[in-house]
Every structure is written in C-alpha cells, then in structure tokens.
Amino acid sequence: MNQFFSSLEKTGIRQLGLSITYTDGEVSVSVLPKSHADDKGLKSLRPLSLRASVEEMDSKFFEAVQRPLERTKTMFDSVEAYEASLKASEGKTAKVKKQKESVGKKTTALQNLIKEKDFNPMKDHERAIKAAKEILALDPDNKEAKKVLEEMSQYESPNLFQDADR
To answer: Could you report the per-residue pLDDT of 39-89, keeping only the tens digit for each?
Structure first.
C-alpha cells in the first residue's frame, strides 16, 4: 500500500478523479481519468467503478485498473496528438491565407503602379522591379510579377542598339 501513488503515476495519466466509499465491509472505488484535450467526447468519459472487500481491493486494485487505464492513456495521447496537429495545421493555413492576401494586395498595387498616367518606365522601372521582387519573394510562381520584372529589366540598362520590334 505504500506504493499507491507511485503506481497511479506509472499509468501515465496526468489527472485522475478518485472516489472511495466504504459500506458494510466493502469498498467502492470510482476512478475517472481526465484529459487536458478539448475533445468533448473525452469529457463525457464515465468513471471506472470497482466494488470488493477491503482486503480484495488492497490486493487486486491495480491489477483491475491497469489495462483499462492503459487503453484510456492511449486514447488520450491519440486525441491530444491529433489536436496538436490540428492546431499546427490551422496555423499553417492561416499563414498561407495571410500570404495569399498579401500577394494579392501587392499584385494589385503593382498593376496600379504600371497603369498610372504618369508612370514612365525609363525613370520608374526601379519601383516596379522592387514591387515585383517583393511579390516573387512570397510567391515565386506569380506570373504577373515575372512579366513585369521581365518587361522592366530592359530599362535597367537600356541598349541603344536593341531591335526596334522589342
């Protein structure tokens, strides 16, 4: 009996509710494993209930609860791992959504820059190239940014002897 709490700790379940009732020479024990997961199904878990003489409970309690608590621990671990994975996925999804929004805004800003009435590729190409590179840093396959980068790069170091049809 001096290893009661050590034995409970070895189950790996971090929180247990324990209810003990003595009546007419017998003892009733209810053990309710609790999970830190948010899953509502785990919150409705019913306690494991045992009833025996005090002597029998002393000698067979851990033998009786070991297998059910092992299975419960496995289920808790699985649910907690799933929730952690879900939370990580949500974070990635939010990041991707935010990145797409950012790319969309930057692409619109780049298109508006080039469509401005006073946009002069000879003197404003650096702004357009910078904006296109910012977009490509977030989305390397962005066709609009690639197109602008290609078009504006010819103004970086103009060649007086280029083909006229360019």
So the answer is: 888 888 899 999 999 999 999 998 999 899 999 999 999 998 988 888 888
pLDDT for residue 91 is more than 80: no
pLDDT value, residue 44: 83
**Residues 127 and 113 sit within 8 Å (Cβ to Cβ):** yes
Contacts of 147 (CB under 8 A, 6+ apart): none
The token pair at 35 is 């999970």
34: Cα separation from own chain's centroid: 23
> What would the pLDDT profile of 127-158 be if each residue is shown by its tens digit?
888 888 888 888 888 888 898 888 888 877 65
The secondary structure of the chain, three-state, reads CCCHHHHHHCCCCCEEEEEEEEECCEEEEEEEEECCCCCHHHHCCCCEEEEEEHHHHHHHHHHHHHHHHHHHHHHHHHHHHHHHHHHHHHHHHHHHHHHHHHHHHHHHHHHHHHHCCCCCHHHHHHHHHHHHHHHHHHCCCCHHHHHHHHHHHCCCCCCCCCCCCC
Dihedral sign, CA of 76, 79, 80, 81?
Answer: positive
What's the rounded Cα separation, in Å, for the pair 94 and 135? Answer: 18
